[in-house]
Amino acid sequence: MSRKRPLIFSTASYDYLRERMEATGGFERGELERTIFPDGEHYQRVISTVRGRHVVIVGGTITNDDTMDIFDLACGLVKQHAEELTLVVPFYGYSTMERPVKPGEIVTAKTRALQFSAIPQAKHGNNVFMLDLHAEGIPGYFEGNITTRHIYAKEVITKVAKRIAGGGDFVLASTDAGRAKWVESLAKDLGVLPAFAYKSRVDGSTVESRGVNGAVAGKLVILYDDMIRTGGSLIEAGKAYKAAGAKDIAVIATHGLFPNNGLDKLKGSGLFTQIVTTDSHPNAVKLAGDFLSIESVAGILARELKKK
Question: What does 82-109 look like in DSSP terms, one character per residue?
Fold first, then answer.
């Protein structure tokens, strides 16, 4: 196999993360021409010579267009005789649709995996790297000879938690019992106590917290969740922790989506001192400011790629 540095490409939405990964060293930028025509069709042209090279595509399945851009580019690179293909998917969309709940529901997390499994096979194989998946079983949805790797952002999360606490005591908490196991593992690594909130879902977009399991009175509570969407679950959990006597509440999440003014709702609730997410989703990067700060996962992703 070629010993040259991997050629790294990205979808337009993830140019920022590709650049941050390039800055860690060990990659060569893949040159790509992109255009969107007036009728909405996407045009891509690979300028770099990829024959015999390990090629990397950085892109999240954040929209249907982004998903198709990854798929189209990957197919094109393999057809141009890339020796190995690795998809780096910092955010895997539809990860909450990982199993049917009602009869007839489409398991979109699986259909997306099947789509990527249909990419032609590079000579030395195709790989998919994914970050802090909402459902652990998603890698099993990929078929054929594709190799998957679930990367955890634990080192970033623990570093941010220590920074927020400033050396003081805190409780690491989850928004609900469903994330308790993950939070317990993180709390053990940090040497702090965990806590979680009980919740019940009212409908598809509304949840209510019913209480807290954990000693949080008078303490800094750092809430961790893998993903923030509208912020409804966080607000309900924040109310529960405040009612249980939490002094201050900060939030850490791997993936920050914040659709429909979700960040404004969280800030306006007055429950949280700050929110920190990674740069796994471009919306979080665009919205960063005094209330929302960003920690990059470029180093983790680059390191995992260099292990190959």
Answer: BSEEEEEESS-TTTT-SS-SSTT---HH
- Round the CA-based radius of gyration of the chain to a whole number and report it: 20
Largest CA distance in the chain: 61
Handedness of CA 259, 301, 50, 127 (dihedral sign): negative
On whether the CB atoms of residues 245 and 214 are closer than 8 A, the answer is no
Residue 121 DSSP symbol: P
Tokens of 102: 């009602």
Q: What is the 3-state secondary structure (H, E, C) of 191-204?
A: CCEEEEEEEEECCC
DSSP 3-state of 189: helix
> What is the value of pTM for the model shown?
0.93
* Span 31-61, pLDDT tens digits: 999 999 999 999 999 999 999 999 999 999 9
Domains and CATH numbers, the chain: 7-151 (3.40.50.2020), 154-295 (3.40.50.2020)
Q: How, if at all, do strands 42-46 and 54-58 pair?
A: unpaired
CB atoms within 10 A of CB 251: 27
